[in-house]
Amino acid sequence: MTGAVLLVLFALIFLFVVVLLAKTVRIIPQARAGIVERFGKYKETLPAGLNVVVPFVDRVRYLIDLREQVVSFPPQPVITEDNLVVSIDTVIYFQVTDPIAATYEIANYIQAIEQLTMTTLRNIVGGMDLEETLTSRDQINSGLRGVLDEATGKWGIRVNRVELKGIDPPPSIKDSMEKQMRADREKRAVILTAEGQRQAAILTAEGSKQASILNAEGDRESQILRAQADRESQILRAQGEGQAIQTVFQAIHDGRPDQSLLAYQYLQMMPKIAEGDANKVWVIPSEITKALEGLGSSIHEVAGIPKQVDGPRTRVDMGPTEPALPADRELSDTHASVQEAIAAAESAANPGRASREERLDEALGDASAGGADGPPQEPPAQ
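Now predict its structure.
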């Protein structure tokens, strides 16, 4: 019986010691502060770590978190200056700097911060219209932080940052804003399209202007070149005709023409007489020799043309036979090629004319053979 009593007594003593140690030793976590009261009155603030208090006399009443805390408040309706109700939810970043003031200066500092945030937000947003409210987040954040930091300073709390999570206008205002944004984008698109068309028209006009200028310059240069080519061709043609006349005139002086030469020239003109469109048939008489004799006898009375000549006289010096312009071998070759091509084309187009010319050449050959019985001609002097 005595042993059982002793055992119970030891158990009670052990339990008392454990409770005494529990009331005496206090462990405060890191970044925490313990507020100790003795008989209901503030005594001290326990730092982080192992602390000893008077059991059953001192009591750790509050454990204050010294870390920066984040509190998100639910959306609050706020009326703007243009009488539109918007819903704004905020986030507050704060930190307890004075555990004693946060414990004894205010009962619930989180609720106090929430109410102060709501009233300050309504005061700031009430002086802005909807457009300014949506675009002035930084201004609203700065205003809220300044007011909250000043009001919570005596509570031992420092407000580090205030953020607006969202500003939600009414659905009708959202629809109007979307329409306005769509209209603004369409307006910018139309303006950009018009500017693009204007730039395109300007570039097109400038291109047309440059093209017209270049075409005009090209036409002017081509006309100048054609005029110069016509002038040079006319000069060359006139010089060629002059050279031909000089050659013919020299040949006449060298050959001392008589009635036979005149008859020969007449026979050479006969194919040209037959070239007319109305001359479908041209007959050469078989008695061509008698006709030539009669032609020669009828022409001998022409003044200035003797019937017979004694011989060639001294050549007449006609000066240089070269044209004034420098001779161009390539131009002469090209002209000869063109003349040959034209003659070939005319022969192919008028085969009857070619046959007539061949018959005329044969007749002229017979006439020359018949006139060979006349007096012989002396060769021209060299």
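Confidence is low (pLDDT under 50) at residues 298-302, 323-327, 367-382.
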